[in-house]
Amino acid sequence: MKWSNHFLLSSELEKHQASKIIKNSALALNGTSKLEISL
Questions:
Q1: CA 23 → CA 11, 20, 34, distances in Å?
Q2: Nearest 10 degrees: CA dihedral of 20, 18, 33, 30?
Q3: Separation in Å, CA 7 to CA 4, 13, 35
Q4: Could you give the angle at the alpha carbon of 27 between the alpha carbons of 24 and 30, nearest 5°?
């Protein structure tokens, strides 16, 4: 039981990290495109 709970928790953390990375890269892309437009 403990092992499966730990596994579930770690996979949830991985999903969270992945969505964070996706959001950050999307923000970075938005920022660069805005900079290019303003130039």
A1: 18, 5, 16
A2: -30
A3: 5, 10, 42
A4: 155
Question: How far does CA 8 lie from the centroid of its chain?
Answer: 18
Q: Which two tokens stand for residue 9?
A: 């928790």
Within 13 Å, how many C-alpha atoms sit on residue 26's CB side? 6
Amino acid found at 11: S
Measure Cα distances from 17 to 10, 27, 28 in Å. Answer: 10, 15, 16
DSSP SS3 for 8: helix
Over residues 24-37, the pLDDT tens digits come to: 888 888 776 666 66
Full-model pTM: 0.51
